[in-house]
Amino acid sequence: MNYGYFDDNNREYVITNPRTPTKWINYIGTLHIVSEIYGILTEVTIFVPTGAEVEVRDIKITNVNDQPIKVDAIPVLEYTHPDALKQFTNADWIPQTMQSKAVKDGECTVLTQYPFMFRDIKVNYFTSNLPASSFETDRKKFLGENEYGTWTNPVSLQNDELSNTEASRGDNIAALLFHLGTLQPRETKRLITQLGQVHTLVDAKQSIETWRDPKSVDDALDAMKKYWDDYLSVLQVETPDLAFNSTVNIHNPHQCHTTRQWSRYLSYYQLGLGARGIGIRDSSQDILGVIANDPQGSKDFLKQLLSFQRQNGSALHAFNPLTLEGSVGDSLEREDRPHYYSDDHLWSVLCVTAYIKETGDVAFLDEKVHFYEKDSVEGVSVLDHVKQALTFTRNDTGKHGLPLLGFADWNDTINLAKGAESLFTAHLYGRALNEFIGLLDYLGKNDEADKWQSSCRNEVPRRRARLGW
Asked: Which of 12, 46, 113, 360 has its C-alpha lying 20 to 30 A from 126's C-alpha?
C-alpha cells in the first residue's frame, strides 16, 4: 500500500495515507500542518529557530469562503511536570505543585507556569505577537468543570471570553483568546506563538521581542533552509537510480541528523522519562553517520561522550542530557553480573579516528576531557582516552583470550554469568585497534604503533594505511 512519497525538492516525506504501518513520529508536529473546516484554512509552521531555545508556531488563518466571516483563534497547550515519571505515579501530589501566572507585557499577555519548587529554575512561558483579550490556565475550567466538556467541544468556547483564571494548582494549561475580527474572502491573518523555558521571565525578554516580529520568523525559516542546503551539500551523487540518489542525497543524511540529535532519547520504545537517557554506544554510532556533514557538532558531542568514560577505560552505558548524570544502564539488575557493557567504550575509538580522517584535525587528540569520576576534573587528552579504552579491553579477557562479555555487548539481551566472552566485542576491539595503529602511523609514532601491534596475542604483519590512513 502507498502511504506517501518523497518530495526531493522540499526535502520532505509527504504522507498521503495517515494509516502508516507503524505510528509516525514528528518530534515537533501535529496530525494536520494544514487544516480546513467551515471554510477557514489554517496553516501552521512549527519549528525551533537555529540557535534559539524556543518553539515558534507561525499560524496563518485564511478565509476561503466567498463571504466575510468573524474569526477567533485560541491556541492552547497542556503542561507536564519536569519529573514526567512521577506524574504517572503520584497523581495526587504532582497537580498540587503546578502554578500559573499571567503577566502583562505591553498589549500582550505572557502566561507563565512552573511547579512551585522550580519557580526560579524552570519557568515555562507562552505568549504571542498579538494582544489576547482573555486567557485560561485551568484545564477543568477550559473544558467545563461540571459539564463533562471534552477537547472536541470545550465548554468555555461557548462564552464570549475565557475566565482569566491563574491556576494555583491542578491540571495547568495555557490558552489565549484572540479576536481576529472579520476576515474578508481570501484574507489572511497571521498569529505567532512561542513556548519556552527560562530561569526567570526576565531572561526571555529579548527572545520574546525577537519572535513576535514576523520578519524575524521569516528570516529564521530562511536561515533554516540555508542550514539544510549547507548540511546536505557536503555529498551529492547522481546515478541512474533516482531512488538511490534520493536516499543518499537527502533522506538518509536527514535521518542521521535526527538520530544524532535525539539518539532514541524520545521514541516509541524510549519514552524520555529519565530512566535511561542517551546511550553511549548509540550516540557513538550516530556520530559516525554525521561527521562529514557536521564535523564541529560531532566533535563537541564526542567530547561529551568521552566525559562518561571511567578512569579504568570502560564507559558508562547512558546519561541524562539534562542533568549530565551517568548510568550503568540495566547492569544493576543483577548483582552477580559486571556493572559495565563490554563494547561501549570501544565505539569512541572509532569515532575519534573517523573524525580525524574526515577533518584532519589532529590537534583534537590533545584536547583535554575529564573522566566521569569526580576526582578527575583536570582531564586527560583525547588520545589518552582512546588508549585507556583499548587498554581496558586488552586486559579484560577470558580463558580463551577473548574480551569478557561484561553485563552484555552490542546484543543487550545476552547477560551471561561472569567469565563469558564476546565475539562481538572481539571483532569491535580488532577494528578499533587497527584504526588506532593506523592513526599512530599517520602521526609518525611508528614505535608506539609497533608496541600496540605486538600486544595482540596473535600478531599479524602490519600494513600501514590499510584502513584509509
From this structure: 12
